[in-house]
Amino acid sequence: MLQSLPSPVKGTFNYIALATNTFALCTPVFALSALKLLPNHTWRKACSIGCIKIAETWISINSTLQQSTLGTQYHITGGENLKYDGWYMVISNHQSWADILVLQSIFNKRMPFFKFFLKKELIYVPVIGLVWWALDYPFMRRYSKEFIAKHPELKGKDLEVTRKACEKFKYTPVSIMNFLEGTRFTKEKHLQQKSPYKHLLKPKSAGIAYAMNIMNEQINTLVDVTIHYPEGQISFWDFMSGKAKNIHVDIRTTNIPQELKLGDYENDAEFRTKFQGWISDIWQEKDDLLDRYKSN
Length: 296
Hints:
Number of domains: 1
Number of strands: 8
Largest sheet: 6 strands, mixed
Low-confidence stretches: none
Mean pLDDT: 87
CATH topology: Glycerol-3-phosphate (1)-acyltransferase
Shape: globular
Radius of gyration: 20 Å
CATH architecture: 3-Layer(aba) Sandwich
Strand order of the largest sheet: 1-8-7-2-6-3
CATH class: Alpha Beta
Order of helices and strands: HHEEHEEHEHHEHHEHEH
Number of helices: 10
Structural class: alpha/beta
């Protein structure tokens, strides 16, 4: 019945439902996050796990509501061997904010809760910024080469922040999620970059290289996700309105070469070239896969 509603009605309903679910489950998350301030490691860890359980419930409710109203068909290939108690590095192409809901719906409780690297400024987003902090999302401040040239005393500070953020992931299974393109794909950005790929922006390797180096003892598996919308690139509103009738998701798991987890990406030019080549090969395969999807 709900699936037969007009698209604007479905979109409005899903926006209200998402907001209601978010605000309802924020309260227990905020309560646990306050308790995390107590100086007891065991208690803080228990509160963090509690926050994750609440977040997984939030995802389950969202997915159930969206499936009942949208009826989107997910066509999933791969990912059969993922475990909830494992450590994973996850990468994906990025076309829409809907990608996040798609990924959450598919992987919720099949693998550890996703942790995204976020820009430090996002911690100030009302309500959600505090939720991200409570869920131990790593907030990063990336300095440009031009900025470092003017403020050399800050060189390496952004990497130290990344290192501290990842340290807490060594003790609880986690899926570190990274959109390597760094931004959503658009034709304008594609042309501006002069990207060598047909359907992707250029990948950024530094962040994933640093995270893999820090987590080298825990993370051995790369989960490479490719998302394709047959109806074409969609907006978040399009998704919430039910315009994405089918979504193809290809999941590939591969062992991360040990030598790529131990190098110095910033200071070792040879290692950096090798690491970028590895990422480029993965990105080319992803681009070829998207090309086949679009051709069919």
